[in-house]
Each structure stands twice: as C-alpha cells, then as structure tokens.
Amino acid sequence: MALELISFKLCPFVQRSVVTLLHKQVPFDITYIDLASPPDWFLKISPFGKVPALRLDDGSALFESAIINEYIDDITPPHLNPEDPLVRARNRSWIQFGEQCIGDQYHLTVAKDEEAFETVRARAEGNLDKVEAILGEGPYFNGERFSLVDAAYAPIFMRYALIKPMDDVMPESRYPRLNAWARTLLALPEVQRSVVDEFPTLFAEYVRKNSAYAAERLIAA
User: Fold this and answer.
1) Cβ contact 52:68 at 8 Å
2) How many whole angstroms separate alpha carbon 170 and alpha carbon 172?
3) 1 pLDDT exceeds 80?
4) What sequence ranges are listed for the domain GST C-terminal (predicted)?
5) Alpha helices in the chain (DSSP H)
6) What CATH number should be reported for the domain holding residue 7?
7) Direct distance between the N- and C-terminal alpha carbons of the chain, in angstroms, rounded to an integer
8) Which range of residues forms the domain containing residue 192?
9) pLDDT tens digits, 165-178
10) Least CB-packed of 76, 86, 166, 177 within 10 Å?
11) CA–CA separation, 153 vs 157, rounded Å?
12) What is the dihedral of CA 180, 92, 6, 18, to 10 degrees?
C-alpha cells in the first residue's frame, strides 16, 4: 500500500508519524504544504485543517497523528503497541498527555513578554514533572522496547535540545529520567532523520518571527 504523509516542515505532530514510519522501515512519500494557504484537496481530507494527514492509494485518508501511528502499527508487524490491554491503554493516555507538552512548548516560542513566558514555563515544568514521575528505568518508555509513546515524545525532546544552550527548560537535576530517555531517543537514526536538514534554522526563524521576547530567551543570535 502506498502511503503519503501530508506535512509542513516544523510540525511536531507530523514528526511523530515520520519517526514511526522510519522506525518500522515503511516506505512512504511526504508532501509539504503551506498551512497558511492550504490547497483545497488538503481541506477535503483533513476536517480540522491540520497536519498530519495520511493519504492512502485507495483514495481514503486519515488524520490526527495518534490515529495515523496506530494504523501504521496495525498494518506493519511487528507491532510497537504493547499486547497487554491495560499497558496499551496507559500508553495511549501518555501519548495524549504528550500533546499538552507539545502545546506548552509551542506557547513558549510565541510568548510575547516575560509574564507570558514565565506562566507557560511554570505550566511546562509542571507537566514535565508528571512525566518524570511515571518513568521507569528505561531506556524507553516501556522499558527495553521502542513504542508509539517514544515516537510521540521524540519531537518534544528535539526542540528542547535546540533551545537548551540558551534556556534549559528540562534540566538534568530536576528531570534525570526524562533526560536519559531524551538522549536515547535523540541518538536514534529514525529520530535524527525525521526532520528536514534545515530544521534547526527553520525553527529559529519561526521563533524570531513570532516573538522577539521568546527569541531572545530561547534562540542564540
């Protein structure tokens, strides 16, 4: 089956699906669009007008990264989702929670002033505290095996690694297990290859464009 992932180059949710596809060595094509001016065909397959969307060769399409990743996992064994129903449900819960962590990260990059930035930072730290508290010994979320939860959090860790030289939102002293997990994921070839080569530059340009204050806090000149 031919798979076409619809994306724009900075989207962390798309990156979740790219990591999954690369990890499972599933052939796919990727099409980049301008979300500020999306083509009509995209709006027909993505009811929310958001990426990612996954187009199949029978003309059908899926949307929402968690759903797309579960579909990819279902059709390409061996499966990344745990077999135990309770563990699988727990994984889904923390994948959903990861969306809140992505949201925190986004709001940090667009904060217009110190008050807004510190409010979001406190919320981000509180949410990272919750993830830190439930992590085991690793190296992955479920222990020895890579799962869809790992694919879901890799984009978060990649962005925090980019801003760390300027502002360490996830310090080792407070988040030792999160940092160990992050190092494991960021060393994986499928994570490193899950973004375009110019991603660091595009990310910095995005922050500078959207918030002078956030750029000063997060991005080196």
Assistant:
1) yes
2) 7
3) no
4) 84-203
5) 12-23, 40-45, 65-75, 85-110, 114-134, 148-163, 176-186, 189-192, 199-210, 212-218
6) 3.40.30.10
7) 45
8) 85-218
9) 999 999 999 999 99
10) 86
11) 7
12) 30
